[in-house]
Write a structure and sequence with these properties.
Elements: E1 5-9, H1 16-26, E2 29-33, H2 52-57, E3 60-61, H3 74-90, E4 94-99, H4 102-109, H5 121-127, H6 132-142, H7 144-149, H8 155-165, E5 184-189, H9 193-210, H10 212-222, H11 235-242, H12 248-271, E6 277-279, H13 282-295
Parallel strand pairs: 1-4, 1-5, 2-3, 2-4, 5-6
Length: 296
């Protein structure tokens, strides 16, 4: 009997959490988080983590793994996720790899051979003097394919990508992508764009109701807002509101806009992958999983 892995992917606010919990209950599964922000403790609201009640319904792995000021790399994620998947398999259950961070998902599914590149303070200090458009242009000259996948307005990510591209022998994008194992079913939720944007707007409003302002106050008491973890949508905007740089209304509108742009990038990432099986509801997902399990 082969050991299956079921992936539930999709853009933010597409309904991955609810769907994954329902499916894991049906198919004797456990959930392995594949969202890059949910690994951090104390960051609950703007990351839209599964609630305590949802985590009681189905066991979740790789949520609240590190503090916001602790480094956490893709290699760290891959090691912990593979460990969790092996543990779930050893207990004769099915791992459901669930999230919207495409790089995390693909690192597991295609078993990326990761190269550890340490930060280069000297290079970073030089790069920090460049404008964001200059950084984007430099990255494109070094590794055009990686450049296409990175937010061109995020200077921190551009600097890190340049740092990696200048310290390895060949571009990461030049590595040959492995085939998806036959034991992996890669499902992706498809939601009409207007419906997705409506959900995103509602979600941001819910963050305020759930106490995002208070959560951000507590986080910034203990941690620097400049930490990579706190670059997550929501915390930067509320921090600016708390510093009287923008109004709360402006902060919410910026959060909605940033989240819509983030969803666009997620959709673009998944569109490039021919291994995905798109589903629109739980019935379609159930049918796909049943057919898949008959072959494993």
């Amino acid at each position: 009997m082969k050991k299956p892995i079921i992936v539930i992917a999709g853009p933010t606010a597409s309904g991955k959490t609810t769907l994954a919990i329902n499916l894991a209950q049906k198919f004797k599964g456990e959930i392995v988080n594949a969202d890059s922000r949910s690994v951090y403790r104390e960051m609950d609201i703007a990351t839209s983590k599964p609630s305590a009640l949802e985590r009681q319904q189905i066991r979740h792995h790789l949520i609240d793994v590190v503090n916001p000021d602790e480094p956490f790399s893709l290699s760290d994620y891959k090691a912990l996720a593979n460990e969790a998947i092996a543990d779930i398999h050893n207990r004769d259950k099915i791992p459901f790899l669930v999230g919207g961070t495409g790089l995390y998902l693909d690192a597991i599914i295609y078993d990326y051979g990761l190269i550890e590149v340490k930060p280069n303070p000297t290079l970073r200090s030089r790069l920090e003097k460049l404008s964001t458009p200059e950084l984007a242009k430099l990255l494109k000259s070094l590794d055009p394919m990686v450049s296409e996948k990175i937010d061109q307005k995020n200077s921190r990510r551009l600097i890190r990508a340049i740092e990696i591209a200048t310290q390895i022998d060949k571009p990461l994008s030049g590595e040959t992508k492995k085939e998806k194992p036959t034991t992996v079913l890669y499902l992706a939720i498809k939601v009409p764009r207007d419906q997705l944007y409506e959900r995103i707007n509602e979600r941001v409003d819910q963050w305020e109701d759930q106490g995002l302002v208070s959560e951000t106050k507590e986080l910034t008491k203990n941690y620097s807002i400049d930490l990579p973890s706190l670059s997550a949508i929501g915390y930067q905007e509320i921090s600016n509101y708390l510093d009287d740089k923008i109004s709360l209304c402006e902060a919410l509108e910026i959060m909605k806009k940033r989240t819509r742009h983030y969803a666009k990038r997620q959709i673009t990432w998944f569109k490039r992958n021919n291994d995905l099986v798109y589903i629109e509801n739980e019935d379609e997902a159930t049918a796909a999983i049943e057919a898949f399990l008959k072959l494993t």
